[in-house]
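Sample entry copied in:
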Amino acid sequence: MKILLLSGGSGKRLWPLSNDSRSKQFLKVLKTEQSEQLESMLQRIWKQLKSINLHQSSYISTCKAQVDMVLSQIGSDAPLIIEQQRRDTFPAIALASVYLYSCIKTDPNEVVCVLPVDPFVEKSYFEQVKVLDELVQESGANIALMGGTPVYPSEKYGYIMPEKGKINHSPLSYLKVSKFVEKPMEDQAIHLIKQGALWNLGVFAFKLKYMISILQTMGFPVEYIEFEKVYDQLPKISFDFEVVEKADNVIVVPYNGTWKDLGTWNTLTEEMDTTQIGKGIISENSANTHVINELDIPVVVIGVSNIVVASGPQGILISDKAASHKIKDIMKHEEERPMYEERRWGWYQVLDYGKISDNLLALTKKIVIDAGKNISYQSHSKRSEVWTVLSGVGEFALDGRLYEVKQGDTLRIPKEAKHGIKANSTLEIIEVQMGEELVEEDITRLFMTWDEVIKHCEEKIKEKEQEA
């Protein structure tokens, strides 16, 4: 069985700490079991997969904007399938299926199990996922789902309505699916639960050839390179709507274990082992109040209960916990550049951004590069940069030449100049960008590894010596 983790969602639900490149699964707010360090939902679920040896057959489907964040959190060898543009779960699963089929040469009869990357679950969840492999093979079903036993009449989840009666000729009892109901009102949810409905947990299992045949019927190529060329032609729609609800012979396995969607500040804070992360004070008479503060200034809450305060470079949220889910709708039309991002080499935070004149913008960042890591050898067509080294030592490459850098050095990088830097010890840098357009997409990467940069610079030196 191949496991596909979906990790490409946008970042409005836990604003202001989440953004388009740092959506909810990347927030480090969950306590690890064996240390005082905090971990993200992605790190937690990847560790759980490792504990039962499922990680070796697992792949992470993510969008281009989130690649560095994934690699930063679970390692540079993470097996990624990358969307060049975010389009919804049906295109993402289609792309991954074609990748498995034409690049990995997976047996078409092998089962693919799709999981969301961000639920809060325990080991029993994955044990049940493992059973789906045999269930699909033995039952002859086109798709097998996992349905959670509802603990309250939620309006946020979809519901699966099974047919009455169980079939018991497999290791785990399953039910045939009668219909689906998407996010009902509370009174309807109560009625559905009384009839035996289950929450749709977003877990899908199917034979690879089933998905490939759907794409062929739709007229799409099933060779990865050709499929990527027409990716933007796929309908921007969920896998539930495009495939599951149209399929014949769909079954569901009830799951009674721990499962929580930590998609709002209210549900997320329920699983936090502390009421406060970052600088701040919460008074004793502020009951059920949480502060998550990523700014270097204190947040003080006095005599206010049942609220969440989240503050970071993107903004500040103060919300009644029960109403915190509304932030997604409130912010859905706001176009924001990410003010904080983790990268495979470290992280950066935007400190200031503004217009100097009609045709000139300025942006100031703090950049931290972890010891032994490097920024790619790159160039920018629309901006120049000035770097000031606050601490650490490293190697700096500029247009084919290498320089040693240390605390206090100032590095000037003209527009179009090729440049990169490696941290021999952790480097802290203040970067000031100036140009007509200041966006992360204005980057041409020439080399990713520092060995490639050194080799390039040595070749440039030899060329100059020969010319002389």
Observations:
- The radius of gyration is 25 Å.
- The chain is about 25% helix and 35% strand.
- Residues 112 and 428 are 43 Å apart (CA to CA).
- The mean pLDDT is 91.
